[in-house]
Structures are given as C-alpha cells and as structure tokens.
Inverse folding.
C-alpha cells in the first residue's frame, strides 16, 4: 500500500465522498416506493397484467401519475449510475480518473433522463386512432 | 501426546512462481497452528513468517488458515485439521507480498499512525452511538458484565480486517477498517479530542468511511472484537449529523 | 524491495469470491450482482420502450412477445432481483446510519426469506393473471 497520508490529510476535505453514498441511500429508499408503484401498475393492475398502448397512454396522462413516473425515471437513473460509479471507484483509479468517471456518468444520466422524458412526451401526445 | 499434521503452505520468492508445498510435521496435540508453522520452519529453514508473542497480543502472525483470516497462535491445530486432509496456510490478502507468509505492512502502519490513538478510560461509545452507562458495563460488584465492551483500542494492528475487506482488494488508498476504527476511537473523548476536526475530515474524505460497502467482513474476522464496521457506521452517523447541523446553521464545533 | 501482488484483474474480481466468507459478504456480493443486472435491465427496458413511441401496432407486437412464458419467466427473475436488491439495500442504508448494525446478519437472512416468498407469490401472480 502506498503512503496515502501526503495526499489525504494535508488537503482540506470537501466531504465529496459522502455525496455518492448519501444520494445512493436516498434514491434507494425512494425507489422502494416508486419502483414498487411502477411494477405494480404495469404488471398487476389491468386485466392480463401488461398494459396495451391505450392503457399506457391513459395511465401516463393522469396528472398525479405523470410526475410520479418522471420522478421514478430520474431516481432510478441516478441510483443506477451512482451504483456503477461506486463499482468503478473500487478499481483503485487515480483521483483524476475518478473525476472523469463522475463527469461521464453525469452526462450519461442527463442523456438517459432526456431520452425518457422525450419518450414520455411522445407517448402522452400520440394522436388517437382516426 | 503428539499428532502428525500435513501442512500445505504457500511459498514464494521473487524470481520464482508462487506455489503451495505440503509438509508433514509432528507437534503436541494441544499445539496451535503457529507451532505447526514453526515446525515446518525447522524442516525448511527458508520459510519466511512473522511471529512474536504467541498469545494474540502483538498481531504479528496474522495469516489465512484454510482460506480464512486468523491469528495462528490461537487456533488449535486440532481445530484447523478437523474434517480436513491438511491445514492450508497462506498469507493475508490485499497486502503486497514480500515472500512466503510475510506481507508488506508499511502502508498499513502509515495509515494507523494518522489516527494518533490515545488510550483513555472514558466510557466507550456503543455501536448505536451513545456512551455506555456504568451500570451496563459493570455489575454490582464492579466486575465487567456480559455486555460486549466494545473497545476499539483492542486493536492489535494485525491487518486481518484489511485482508477480509473486499474494498481493500483493489482500492489501495482506502483508509481501511483498522484505520477508521482507530480514528473513531481517537475522536471519542468527551472533553474534545486532539485534532478531532482533522481526524473527522480524514474519515469524511474520499478514502474514508464512504468507501465502505458494508460487507462486515472486518468485524467478522477481527480476533479482538474491535468491530471496525461498527466504528465506520458510527462515524457515518456522526458525520451526517454534523452535515445536517451545518445545513441548518449551527456553529461548527 | 520486490513485492508480489495478485494481478489487478484478480483483485478487481475478488469481491465475487464469497467462498469461506460470511453472510455480510454474501449480501454485498448479491447486491452488486443484482445491481449490475438491474442496470443492464434498465437500459434494455428503455430501448424496448421506444416501441411505445412508434405507436399501438409496434407496441402490441411487443406485448404479445412479453406475454409468452419464457418472457414471463424472465420477469419473475427481474422481480426477484428487485426484491433482493431493494430489501437488502434498505438494510445497508439503515446500517449506514448506525441503525441495526448488531442485527445485520439475522436481518439479512430475514429479508432474503421475505424476498423469496414475495418473488414466489408475485411470480405466480404474473403467470396466472
């Protein structure tokens, strides 16, 4: 093991280490509820379990459901990518590499949420059959 | 009475491939595994291993016995051999290996030194973060009660927890269970520990408590009931409480 | 002084070797494996949902596939993964705030029993609805 004291004790700590863990915990607890809701709604409510297009659209157009599904999207993406970050940070990489990983995952997260929002919007506004 | 012990020992020297060699040694039947290792050394003087006190005080002899971290000086040979064809002896994981059973502990001790541990007799914090009441620790006659008396200063710096810790495998810079347990202990005195802020900052840093993945292997393997995992969780609790207080405007102590 | 280290690859994968380790380690490895599986599932799911964006015909074609037994079986695996990861994750969160640390082992066993039961019940419901 290298001598780590020169590069930890001397620098003022920003508490950056706790950010990942805390948000992982918070999003995790949120997901127990949000994912529970999502899985129940999409597998166990309608006749036959899975929703057809009409049923998905009707579901997402609900004023309480829509924000909850968006919240679910953001929370699950954050939790998933924070988890990937935690695994990658176990590889013993340099501080710089770890910073780059955080940046890259943030971008991926933003793109994922963006895609999900686009998808939701497309479904909700899909024109009814003529 | 004597027993014959087949001992499969990890051997390594720079320049040769690591391998296991099986030796047959004869030891008294109440011998411990360190006695068996010494008996192997009497057969092959080239075996490198560490040992000193032979009673679990110094932490020098830590190895893996049958794949699990142990102090061989307190593992009876009979127990290690029970139901097995041989005792397997290997060095600790997660440390650089110098040769045979000897690992490089320099980096480990540098981290330990950072906590500047002082030994005091203040009431110890429990896993739940509150100090023990005297009535919980001692009985009416002043004898130590049955409740586990968690004392992080029990640590003998044997390195077993680092070998057991999954995070230490590839993340060398992680401060480690022993180091964090030492920091927790060093920050406990109620009258304001020396360097408390600096120590807590070390625990709060990128290589501190937040790297722990709650495997609890350190606490399971520790031969001295130090419970490093408990220390890490208690430190997290304290650090979060401080962050919340700061968030709501309280002055930093 | 020359020292020997296991290869970086071996050390990176060491967490997956739970032989001779204790329940806390199984919990950690299980959470990591289910977590990785769920990340893969998440992105697969997001891709599959693009069929929704293509309208009713494309979606109904997918739903027909999704209701076939092999697919439903995979859904049960997903359900199990979610339950294991979620329940154990709650335990890790509590422990991380210093709560229930001494009970971490029995808590893990109890939660996995709950996950197993819920997976069976939920899985049966998926097949028989």
């Amino acid at each position: 093991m290298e001598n780590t004291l020169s590069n930890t004790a001397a620098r003022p700590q920003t508490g950056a280490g706790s950010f990942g863990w805390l948000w992982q915990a918070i999003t995790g607890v949120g997901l127990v509820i949000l994912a529970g809701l999502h899985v129940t709604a999409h597998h166990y409510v309608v006749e036959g379990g899975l929703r057809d297009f009409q049923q998905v659209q009707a579901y997402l157009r609900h004023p309480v459901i829509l924000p909850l599904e968006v919240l679910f999207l953001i929370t699950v993406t954050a939790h998933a990518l924070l988890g990937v970050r935690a695994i990658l940070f176990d590889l013993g990489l340099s501080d710089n590499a770890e910073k780059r990983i955080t940046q890259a995952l943030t971008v991926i997260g933003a793109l994922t949420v963006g895609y999900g929002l686009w998808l939701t919007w497309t479904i909700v506004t899909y024109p009814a059959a003529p | 009475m004597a027993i014959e012990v087949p001992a499969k020992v990890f051997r390594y020297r720079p320049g040769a491939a690591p391998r296991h060699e099986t030796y047959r040694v004869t030891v008294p039947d109440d011998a411990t595994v360190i006695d068996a290792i010494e008996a192997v050394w009497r057969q092959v003087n080239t075996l490198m291993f560490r040992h000193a006190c032979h009673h679990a005080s110094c932490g020098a002899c830590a190895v893996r016995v049958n794949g699990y971290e142990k102090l061989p000086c307190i593992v009876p040979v009979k127990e290690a051999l029970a139901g097995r064809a041989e005792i397997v002896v290997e060095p600790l994981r997660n440390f650089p290996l110098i040769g045979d059973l000897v690992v490089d502990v320099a980096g480990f001790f540098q981290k330990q030194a950072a906590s500047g541990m002082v030994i005091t007799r203040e009431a110890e914090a429990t896993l739940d973060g509150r100090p023990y009441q005297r009535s919980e620790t001692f009985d009416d006659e002043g004898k130590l009660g049955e409740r586990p008396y968690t004392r992080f200063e029990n640590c003998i710096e044997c390195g077993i927890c680092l070998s057991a810790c999954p995070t230490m495998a590839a993340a060398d810079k992680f401060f480690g269970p022993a180091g964090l347990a030492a920091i927790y202990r060093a920050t406990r005195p109620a009258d304001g520990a020396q360097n408390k802020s600096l120590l807590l900052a070390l625990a709060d840093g990128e290589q501190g408590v937040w790297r722990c993945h709650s495997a609890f292997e350190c606490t399971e393997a520790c031969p001295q009931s130090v419970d490093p995992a408990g220390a890490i969780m208690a430190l997290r609790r304290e650090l979060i409480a401080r962050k919340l207080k700061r968030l709501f405007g309280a002055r930093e102590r | 002084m020359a020292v020997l280290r296991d290869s970086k690859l071996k050390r990176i994968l060491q967490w997956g070797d739970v032989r001779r380790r204790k329940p806390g380690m199984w919990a950690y490895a299980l959470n990591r494996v289910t977590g990785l599986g769920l990340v893969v599932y998440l992105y697969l799911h997001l891709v599959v949902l693009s069929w929704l964006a293509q309208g009713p015909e494309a979606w109904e074609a997918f739903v027909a596939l999704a209701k076939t037994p092999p697919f439903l079986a995979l859904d049960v695996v997903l359900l199990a993964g979610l339950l294991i990861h979620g329940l154990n994750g709650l335990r890790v969160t509590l422990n991380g705030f210093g709560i229930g640390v001494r009970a971490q082992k029995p808590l893990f066993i109890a939660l996995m029993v709950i996950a197993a039961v819920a997976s069976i019940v939920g899985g049966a419901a998926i097949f028989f609805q």
In short: Chain B is about 30% helix and 15% strand.
